[in-house]
Amino acid sequence: MNHIKELKGQSIAKKLLTNYLASYPPALMIFHGPHGVGKWSAAEALIRQFLCTGRNGCGLCPPCRKLASNQHADYIRFPESSVPIGDPNAPEAFSIRWLQKTRISYTPFDGRIRFVLFPRGDRIQNEAETALLKIFEETPDHTRFIILTPSLSDLKPTIVSRGICVPFSLLPKESVSDITSITGARELDLLGGSMEKVLMIRSNYYKLLMTKLPEALQHPLDLMNLEKWLYRLENPETASKEIQMKQDYTQILNFFCLVLLSYSRQHKSHKEILQAVFELKEDLLEEMQGIYPYLLGRLFASLHSILFV
Q: Strand ranges (DSSP E) for 119-223?
């Protein structure tokens, strides 16, 4: 997305950002809402238009070409990992002290404005957030900040109070279908108004899962084979070979749980299946080493009891 006018399903955010494009963006904007609903795309479209020579995200001018190759000096995009405060004497790159000492204390290189994007405001460490607050109290006229976060509660109230909050909500099914070209009712339900799981829906993993799952709910031997298959996918090499994707195993299991709940919605034992799945998902949050075989075994033992005993 190169232009804010291309933002779909977010009428409030689109109106606010269009107004800022016609004037000047506030010192701090906080885009808040679920993952996969367009926050990042909207932020980068706004940045492209402001840094573009013609202010339209043309994609052809020197600033647009630099943005396309991630080489624009006036666009600082922090990684999605945790953001530290940084060593006071030799701060590491993409720490708050690094930003303060080596970037925003200087005027922009190519234009009249610099943008700093934090794609995961919920991962800014506590000390870093406190240091960032001091920067926001005296934001240079040439620097503008954008923070993306699932919820405003992930940020200190003092930071939220200094920013303009731009709300993003779950997308209507029509917008999701229009953006992704996914039209199946089950698949749109699985997406749930977000594009976060689009790659999963399009993956070989989903295709195989939708072949194996109906059989597993009908016969105990197929249920056991499904458990063995899911367990094998914990090995990254096996997952890459069998489902042609590299994905965190926790996400693989979470997606399986989502598909299982969706597929078993009309099953007479859906409530019992729901309870077994929620027990698994609750314990997945613990992130204990070696816990996957235990959790998977417990879930499938429960499913066997629910379905066939």
A: 143-149, 164-167
Quote the DSSP letter at residue 218.
T
How far, in Å, CA of 225 to CA of 214, rounded? 12
How far, CA to CA in Å, does 71 sit from each of 58, 116, 178? 17, 14, 31
Note the pLDDT tens digit of each residue in 108-125. Answer: 987 789 999 999 999 999
Q: What is the pLDDT of residues 83-98, one digit of tens each?
A: 999 999 999 999 999 9
Measured distance CA(170)–CA(179) in Å, rounded: 13
- Residue 32, SS3 per DSSP: strand
Phi and psi for 85 in degrees, rounded to 5? -75, -35
pLDDT at 225 over 80: yes
Of 260, 274, 200, which is closest to residue 227 (Cα–Cα)? 260
> d(Cα 127, Cα 104) in Å, to the nearest integer?
19
Domains and their CATH numbers in the chain: 4-169 (3.40.50.300), 203-308 (no CATH)
Residue 80 half-sphere exposure toward CB, CA atoms < 13 A = 4
Tokens of 27: 């010192």
- 115, β-bridge pairs: 75, 144
pTM value surpassing 0.85: yes
| Residue 181 CB coordination number (10 Å) | 9
249, containing H or E segment: helix 249-263
